[in-house]
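Any chance you could type out some protein's one-letter sequence along with its backbone structure tokens so I can compare the two?
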Amino acid sequence: MAEAVAVAVTVAYEEQRQRQIEANKPKLEELQLHRLSAAVREAAAAAKPSSAKKGKARVPRDGAAVGAEPLRRSGRLADLPEKPVYYHVRVRKLKYNARVPLDAAERSYAISKAEELVQDLGSSFPIFIQPMIQSHVTRGFWLGLPTYFCRKHLPKSDETVTLVDEEDDESDTLYLATKAGLSTGWKGFAIEHKLHDGDCLVFQLIEQTRFKVYIIRATSYFESEH
């Protein structure tokens, strides 16, 4: 009896389940159609080109558009670097009449030509040779004179001494007796006559405080035949 009741319940349950399935079929079919329709719409939307405005092409920092062809350059500029290269060069400025160092040959040549000039001028007036060094024509601009000459021929106290060049142009300088040299005014004479280290001057005392000055350039060494 119990078995018969269990079978009857099972059959009733299966029948009820089948009826439920049959009742749900229309809803399931409608749901599948809705999903299929949504999938079709999504696929169509993906295939359709976007109507949004296209943005400008990204420009790299060097100014060229992405994908753009490189600019054509002149053949003359092909080997030049893309950007200019700058070099910092320090140039040493020479002071006053300074020039490149001279060699012994130039200095010796100027002295020998000065000695020849002394011989040509004779002994009518006191005379001496004064080779130029750096301190005479740059820096301090102090011209020391031969002590023996100053003691014998120049004043015993400070005096204005006039220098007369080969063009008869005159320059006044201050002679310092205690130091036996020319101070104020000598710098102007040296700069005006473009005197350099190695040049040689011949001083001829034509009056008590007046010198005739002859200039022999060290650079004349290169102008001579040797």
Summary: Residues 87-96 have pLDDT under 50 and may be disordered. Helices lie at 2-47, 104-121, 134-137, 147-153, 186-192, 220-223. The beta strands are 127-131, 143-144, 159-164, 170-176, 181-182, 200-207, 210-216. The chain is about 40% helix and 15% strand.
